[in-house]
Write a structure and sequence with these properties.
The complex is a heterodimer.
Chain A: H1 5-16, E1 28-29, E2 41-44, E3 48-49, E4 63-66, E5 98-101, H2 104-114, E6 129-139, H3 149-163, E7 182-191, E8 194-202, H4 209-229, E9 233-240, E10 244-247, H5 249-254, H6 263-277, E11 283-291, H7 298-315, E12 319-324, H8 332-340, E13 347-352, H9 358-366
Parallel strand pairs in A: 8-9, 8-11, 11-12, 12-13
Antiparallel strand pairs in A: 1-3, 2-5, 6-7, 9-10
Helix pairs in contact in A: 2-4, 4-9, 6-7
Chain B: H1 12-27, E1 35-40, H2 42-50, H3 61-75, E2 83-86, E3 91-96, H4 101-120, H5 122-125, H6 142-160, H7 162-174, H8 195-198, H9 217-220, H10 223-240, H11 251-258, H12 263-284, H13 286-305, H14 311-321, H15 331-348, H16 352-357, H17 361-365, H18 374-384, H19 387-394, H20 397-402, E4 405-411, E5 416-421, H21 424-435, E6 442-450, E7 455-461, H22 469-483, E8 487-493, E9 496-502, E10 507-511
Parallel strand pairs in B: 1-3, 7-8
Antiparallel strand pairs in B: 2-3, 4-5, 6-7, 8-9, 9-10
Helix pairs in contact in B: 1-4, 1-13, 2-3, 4-13, 6-7, 6-12, 7-12, 7-22, 13-15, 15-18, 19-21
Classes of the chains: A alpha/beta, B alpha+beta.
Chain lengths: ~375, ~500
Amino acid sequence: MSLRIDQDHSRFRNIVRGRIRQNLRKYISKGELLGRQGKDIVSIPIPHIDIPKLRFGDKQQGGVAQGDGDPGDPLSGSPQEGDGDGKQAGDQAGDHPLEVELTLDELADILGEELALPKIENKGKSAIVDKKDRYIGVRNVGPNSLRHFKRTFRSALRRQIALGTYDPKRPVIIPTREDMRYKSWKTEEEPVANAVIIYMMDVSGSMGDEQKEIVRIESFWIDTWLRKQYKGIETRFIIHDAAAREVDRDTFFRTRESGGTMISSAYRLAADIVERDYPSLEWNIYPFHFSDGDNWSVDDTLLCVDILKKLLLPASNVFCYGQVDSPYGSGQFIKDLKEHFSGDEQLITSEINDRDAIVESIREFLGKGK
Amino acid sequence: MAQFALKTALPNYLRDEQRRIEEFATKVGLDFFPTIFEVLSYDQMNEVAAYGGFPTRYPHWRWGMEYERLSKSHEYGLSKIYELVINNNPSIAYLLEGNSIVDQKLVMAHVYGHVDFFKNNFCFRMTSQGRDPRSGADVRKWIDAMANHGAIVRKWANRIGIETVENFIDACLSLENLIDPQKPFLPIESSPRSSEEDEPPEAPEVPLLRVDREYMESFINPEDFVESQKKKLVDEAAQAQRFPTEPERDVLGFLLENAPLQRWERECLAVIREEAYYFLPQMQTKIMNEGWASYWHSRLMTENICDASEIVDYADRCASVLATTPGQLNPYKLGIELFRHIEDRWNKGQFGKEWDDCDDWGVRRHWDRRTGLGREKIFEVRALYNDVTFIDEYLTEDFVADQKLYSFGYNQRNDRWEIESRTFQEVKSQLLTSLTNAGNPIISVVDANHQNRSELLLEHRHQGADLRLDWAQEVVKALSRIWTRPVEIHTVVDEKPTALRYDGNDHSQKSL
């Protein structure tokens, strides 16, 4: 059924997509993409346009609330103008981002829907087959451990009634050998789509905390989405400055080095890992590289291009390069990549200037459905 | 389908319930407009809620945004709208299809509380459009009014283009909160300027020194000096002839009368202003209105409506409505508790000089004069107060302690929100501050001919909290779009008097 509001709604969608009313786009707030992690609480980004009004500044005004606590105690969560439980007197609604507890699976669904991400097409080269037993029926023979009590007693009851030996006043049912029923199973073969994500990050001096935070948020969402698409996904982490090494997740986000930057070192290590552990015929491979785009030398950049062309790209589903904006980096590397790989759909580049750009960049990376 | 009548009539079993609940409500003394309930499916409900409860509004993307927010939160299971009621005569209330019967009864009882409040509270008087000559009843045909607004805006959108009209409406909406809550709700009267005003002011007399000998005249009162004095006086007189003579808080009304608007602009601005005034009482009485409705749903449900099998479901639902969260004021909770507090005090005679003068805690605690005036008192309060006066008069020290009210604020040093105080005075003043002017800054037009260049000057009466600057600049821009000349607003930023200005091309900010 069509609603009257559809017109207003499609107008709003068009503003959000930037088709009309460009002047309003700057007011769109995405909401904090990743709220609190841990208890799986996240904010869902629903675009919202605020009409500017004369209002008090954010932290200028306090308020009054009810509950326990002593002066000086922090309030859990930030105060928001609340509309209680969704009841309204019919005048206006609060405009805070929605917060909800979600499992990562649901989250991936919502992410996919919000960003209109296509389902990823499996490269179809997986040859690994996994065998799985499934209980699907009953049969008359089997081990006692699989005995199906309910069905056993039911057939015993049926037999006793048929024979006339069943006495409703004294309902005793004794199964005999023929009454026994056992669960039966079938072994099914299902193809396993295995995937690995290789995160590479530049940890040279020019990457600050804010840049790393952007990478962390972005990689969280990439993880979430790809996990939804593949069973048994693996992740590997490589950090590099002038030299590259493999690390665990924690170190990945914490390390800060001061050295120079040779991106080729990371690419070479990634290529080695792929060759050693992930034969590309069986694995879906997703290398992601984040950097501020400041490479040591032109020669090294050419070396990178070479490794990409010969080793990484042929093996990967898609290679993604995300460049975060930093006050120190020259940002040259993304231009070089664009120049060498123009028209190559397998290599995706994206510039992530601030947190607001994360959504757009995820869309760029995953929007092709590879 | 939507343009035809929707099948929203009440099914029989709900109509029976409505009759029953209406009877109970009348018996306890609630006095309401005729109330019509309609049952909506969830997407219809979301639509109506996005339109602020009305079936038709003027076209605007904002409703679409609200609709998306509501339907998303519904789909993700975050929230569900149970109830919507609009201030109209007859009042229209919506029930959500598929809610349990206990929920529906609860909503009905709640709605009768609201409608009684709409009808009797003095703030809502200004939403009356007159009286019916035959029955003497309030005329509140706001559903029609909103639909007419829709027709006006749609007409201009068709003629001039939706883009142009929407741009203008966005500018008006930026000013939506710049209205004067004290101004009674009246339609704009066209006031042709009196012809006197257009006459040039008489040339003022310059007081001259006494001259006894005529030939000394040009020495004692040199001509150029007299001339310069005369000019100064003329300038001063012009300055004194400020327009508006008094600061005008109804900025929308001021623009409507004085800005050089085209016809379509004038009509659209009038629509926005009228609706802003319509919604004003709901913002001024949020705590009272919700408190009153909750008070009555709880009374009616527990004393009359529910049977034993329903009471647990009811209690569960009611508890979730009245739940409190840190850093968030629940108007339902504060309102209902304060009404109960008042009823209790007036039942026990805890008021008047004797009570105020008594400072013996033991005596006060067992004070019960069996006056039994509680019920009468709360009915009086619901008619004669708004949130500010309600809190100001009836929030007591005992109540603040019992209800564990606290004030909170942002601690710059710790970079977090913290509980600030539990003392009565501070909680009360914080609460009143945040309710004053419905939480909006106080802004008035002070000069429509600023610097004698027909620029518009507004002033923010600073009371401790600064304006959000990036928004303020956008608002100044919106103002200059309507005023068509540069606009300046005087406010205080970081304790320094500051002028924010938009001259048609650029923003500027300078200290005064």
